[in-house]
Amino acid sequence: MEKKTPLYENHVAWKGKIVSFAGFLLPVQYETGVIKEHMAVRNDCGLFDVSHMGELRIAGKDALHTIQMLVTNDCSKMAPGQAKYSPMCNEEGGVVDDLLVYKLEEEEYLIVVNAANKEKDAAWMKAHLSGNVEFDDLSEKYAQLALQGPKAERILERICEKDKIPQKYYTFTKECMIDGRIPCLLSRTGYTGEDGFELYCSPNDAAELWELLLLNGKEDGLIPCGLGARDTLRLEAAMPLYGHEMDDEVTPLETGLSFAVKLQKEEDFIGKKAMLKKGRQERTRVGLEVTGRGIIREHCTIFADGKEIGVSTSGTHCPYLGKAVAMALIEKTYAEIGTAVMAEVRGRMVEAKICRLPFYKREK
Amino acid sequence: MAELKFTKTHEWVKYTEDGKAKVGLTEYAQQQLGDLVFINLPEEGDCVTVEDTFCDVESVKAVSDVYSPLTGTIARVNEDLLDAPELINEHPYEAWIAEIEDITETAEFLSEDEYETFIKSEA
């Protein structure tokens, strides 16, 4: 049976259209619709329930070493209050999951993982703990809200002490009081390609925090947003999604995450040997802009020079850019910007060309 | 809307005086589909068969088939929808998709009241 997040009743009250996602009942959109929700995040601000995400804790003297072995990015120079994105690989270099590492204290970390992978991740991590560490699944103890958009900071300033608002992207305040009464971890992170925050709080406080944010953001255009907009936003910003741009058989190098793979770090992390052995990668993630008519979604075969060169991994019509784009994993020799390709969409060939990623990048 | 007939697959049919019929999507269908961003229209002269897909519409979320409520030949398509599929969201009973002629068979039609009852039973 699907689980309800602590905000389920709020979604119903706000007229969310509820669907099942990764074992949770969540709103795919509200009455406003995906396009308006998407545009609210680009222009003003949107609020998402992301309580389905998993929170795992690793602590102890050897916590850092354990994490360094598990993830491909280098967490050795992180200070408490910093967050880092990283893939976590299997022995073959395929991606078990992609995640965020929060350094809470010198020997205490919170790892935030995809809902659909949480059980798999927890089992994988437990099997690869090294030395003196504790491991806990804290997912039931956290609700998570994402406040995303250019006006997010201004909205938070109304209900949060200004000096508690993290100023740098990928930093966080471990203990922050919203409206002087709701404790939460406030992190300047997100999955929309926009400035914004993620707030981790107790499930008991989630409903109150949700309504408080919506009330205080109303004058700035804040509206609740569903999973539909979350997907179009991340896609427009070309952020990879587990199960689409990567999985157990795709390496982070192939899917364009080399910035988060530190082959030169001291630890011989899981998957490193396989990646080195593979050597020069033969496929890569590219952006496609549809030049013909239609929308290329996932699992469409991509052709060039009359032969199959790969497959699309995600695609949609991007509300902000006003055009259809897709991401695909293709043979590297065809990855040059401007290369004309075809995608087979439900038995019909749709023309596209390779374009630069990300499709959308916010102005700083 | 008494002149409209409805199907269980959420299309509407409106007969015109010359024995042709216009076909579109219902208010309930457009609500369920969400914001439409693309439509793949049939072509004039295409033969269509009752309950076979003859068109597809795409929202930002997904692609959905539209089933033909009639067997016949496509007389005209509403080309305005190519650039503005959102017209279906805005005015579902004005934004016709295609006009069908030489009609030889029809789906099981519901009246407006029957259709309303049907939607409630589905929800």
How would you describe this structure to a colleague?
The complex is a heterodimer of chains A (364) and B (123). Among the domains of chain A are: 3-51 and 142-235, Gyrase A, domain 2, CATH 3.30.1360; 54-138, 2-Layer Sandwich (Alpha-Beta Plaits). Helices cover 20% and strands 34% of the residues of chain A. Chain A contains eight helices and 20 strands. Chain A has helices at residues 8-13, 34-43, 63-70, 118-127, 152-157, 203-217, 227-236, 272-278, and strands at residues 3-4, 17-21, 24-29, 46-49, 54-59, 83-89, 95-105, 108-113, 134-137, 143-148, 172-178, 182-187, 196-201, 223-224, 283-290, 301-304, 307-318, 323-331, 340-345, 348-355. The longest helix of chain A is centred in the middle third of the chain and has 15 residues, at 203-217. Helices cover 21% and strands 40% of the residues of chain B. Chain B has helices spanning 27-33, 80-83, 87-90, 112-122, and strands at 4-6, 11-15, 21-25, 36-40, 47-48, 53-59, 63-67, 70-77, 98-106. Chain B starts with a strand and ends with a helix. The relative contact order of chain B is 0.26. Chain A binds chain B through residues 28-29, 33-35, 38, 228, 231-232, 293-295, 297, 316-317, 319, 324, 346, 348, and chain B through 34-35, 37-38, 40, 56, 58-63.
